[in-house]
Description:
By secondary structure, the protein is of the alpha+beta class. The chain contains two helices and two strands, in the order αββα. A two-stranded antiparallel ribbon has the order 1-2. Strand 1 (about 30-35) and strand 2 form a beta hairpin. The protein starts with a helix and ends with a helix.
Amino acid sequence: MKRAFGVIELLISFLLLSIIIAGFMHMTLIQMDNGKVQHTKLEDAQQHADKMINEIETIRQKNLDYEKNLLNN
């Protein structure tokens, strides 16, 4: 029984250590941009993702408009 408790303690300590390390890293992500490693903050990555989503939605809307024009003509 003591052995199982030691494994659980080990897993919990590993989890806590991982959280502490993530805190020290300031929640940065490593992104490859043009073959160069670049550290960015999570907020920057979220803004980049939002920008990409907006561009995709714009392209999708343009495609829908184009298809409507084709059907109407």
